Amino acid sequence: MVEKILAPCDLAQIADSGQCFRMTKQDDGSYKICAADLCTYAQMKGQKLILECTEQEFEDFWKDYFDWDTDYQKICDSVDKEDEFLIEAVKYGSGMRILKQELWEMLITFMISQNNNIPRIQKSVETICEKFGDKKTDIRGNEYFTFPTKPQLAKASIDELRQCGLGYRDRYIYEIAHSDFDVYSLKNMDIDLAEKELCKITGVGKKVANCVKLFGLHDLTSFPIDTWIRKLCDKYYNGSFPVDKYKGYAGVIQQYIFFYGRTGIKL
DNA sequence: TGCCAGGAGAGTA
DNA sequence: TACTCTCATGGC
């Protein structure tokens, strides 16, 4: 068990923010988090984050996963005082953090996300893990499944992928799993080039590429524009959000807006 | 029953 | 370049 001060941080907000799909609330109030090939249980007590893992595992993985070194309070405080909508959005989702997630998992997950809804994405991702990932035992003695690697996914037929509820996206996943594309090569690229390379993949457009950049490459300048953001920008910003005001971290701001728009207000 | 969802590809003008 | 149609499918 590891206990560390982390503020701001709200696990409920992060779990419901649409950036991760394998973070689920348990009956005891904790959150089960499956990431990379690991699994832990997390809960907050005040400003204290309690993780069920060893100190070593925390230092090696979870600390970075929670983006420990970014000052989210400073980001919240930087919001334009004239921007009433954004002030409300940040207040509503003030415990948000951008998790540093596994790159391959982000690519596949956000390819599945297109023209889809979050509960259904979660279901598809979980089914894919159960069918093609490795079965492991977590710290509480429960079984969990890792997200399948590229070679593991390449063993799946189109029909097997279709059975995971992917709909028409099954062939996109099939194609990328059988391609010679190395997602990890993106880490060594200029971020604009990385986006171009992502957009060459069948089933990846600008929006999905920006999600992969933000959640998989931790490029906080990335500002994905989906249906929610578009509607909100049309309503509150005359169709275009002033990303230049938030140089270097507009992606975090995007996440506050998305979360507030999707769960906090009626459009 | 029809519309929507963290969109993108293909066809057409 | 810009627009439109289509693609599965569960939830409301």
Tell me what the structure shows.
The protein has 267 residues and is of the alpha+beta class. It is 45% helix and 11% strand. The protein is built from 13 helices and seven strands. Strands 1-5-4-3-2 form a five-stranded antiparallel sheet. A two-stranded antiparallel sheet has the order 6-7. A hairpin with a 2-residue loop joins β3 (31-35) and β4 (38-45). α10 (191-199) packs across α11 (206-215). It starts with a strand and ends with a helix. 38% of the residues are buried. It binds a DNA duplex (13 and 12 nucleotides) through residues 18-19, 110, 113-121, 123, 162, 165-170, 172, 202-208, 211, 224-229, 258, 262.
